[in-house]
Write a structure and sequence with these properties.
The chain has 282 residues and is mainly α. It is 57% helix and 0% strand. The protein contains 14 helices and no strands. α2 crosses α3. It is flat and about 90 Å long. 10% of the residues are buried.
Length: 282
């Protein structure tokens, strides 16, 4: 996730995410041309947006011109007083340093489950549940000690073990609860940005090569063809995707290899066959 939206991304985000409009619909409602609007959302021409277009789009979307131009991150509250945010001096210092992704922080705060995470954190920090947990643990421990006095401390006794494990360790419990809250929020945000240009590819190149190598090793063809497949797999090339011309060139190269034990037919009638007309793997 980029820490800050570009001008082009802001325009497209407002149109698609906030208003769910096509370029044609936006053109009809603003009086701006469809081609101009498309150019404004492209990387090449955003700097050429006219002042009239900026004012028109800002008024239509209900945001400030400063937001459209990337001068502020606030869409709807450009003039909010700092004291209305109820932030401490230290918090303001942290937020103004710019050493973290402010956009991610904003999405965390705006997530539907953020309030619940903060509520769980407040319960833990203010020790609101301490007394109840302490009383519950004390009751179960008293019962456990009573059983021990009557029956002895049998480490394998199911009832005694149950009474021991049922006692809540507050730090561990609330650590799990808050971690679960935060993980769910981050997972939702990650899924939302899965298709972003700055998001890493889901596939792993190393795993792809490993898969190709394994397929080459498992191939039920001739030794020479298996060697060819392994050679290409090491380079990350799919042997079966070769065109006839590429196949012919490959054969010419492989003829020079001292590791090929038998002659290779360029017509595919010898020990190897072209990928497009390959034998089926068993």
């Amino acid at each position: 996730m980029q820490p800050k939206l570009t001008v082009q991304e802001r325009l497209k985000d407002l149109r698609v995410v906030d208003f769910n409009l096509t370029l044609e619909e936006l053109a009809e409602r603003t009086g701006l041309s469809r081609s101009a609007l498309g150019k404004y959302e492209s990387d090449e021409t955003a700097k050429d947006i006219s002042p009239y277009a900026i004012q028109t789009l800002a008024k239509f979307y209900g945001v400030s011109t400063d937001y459209l131009l990337g001068l502020t991150e606030n869409k709807n509250h450009p003039n909010t007083e700092l004291n209305a945010l109820h932030l401490s001096d230290d918090a303001i210092t942290v937020l103004t340093t710019g050493n973290f992704n402010h956009r991610l922080l904003s999405e965390l705060i705006c997530h539907k489950d953020f309030q619940r995470m903060m509520l769980d954190a407040e319960i833990y920090v203010d020790r609101i549940a301490d007394m109840r947990i302490t009383n519950m643990n004390a009751t179960m421990e008293a019962v456990r000690q009573s059983v021990i006095m009557k029956k002895g401390n049998d480490q394998e006794d199911l009832y005694l073990r149950t009474l021991e494990l049922a006692q809540v360790q507050e730090d561990e419990y609330f650590g799990h609860v808050i971690s679960k809250d935060l993980t769910g929020i981050l997972r939702d945000i990650r899924d939302t940005h899965r298709k972003d240009a700055t998001t890493a590819d889901e596939g792993c190149a190393a795993l792809d090569v490993q898969k190709q190598l394994q397929e080459a090793m498992d191939y039920k063809g001739s030794t020479e063809e298996k060697k060819a497949r392994l050679f290409l797999a090491n380079l990350g090339i799919d042997y079966d995707a070769l065109t006839m011309e590429q196949f012919a060139n490959l054969i010419e190269v492989l003829k020079l290899s001292k590791h090929m034990n038998s002659p290779i037919s360029q017509r595919g009638k010898g020990s190897m066959s072209h990928g497009k007309g390959k034998r089926k793997r068993k």
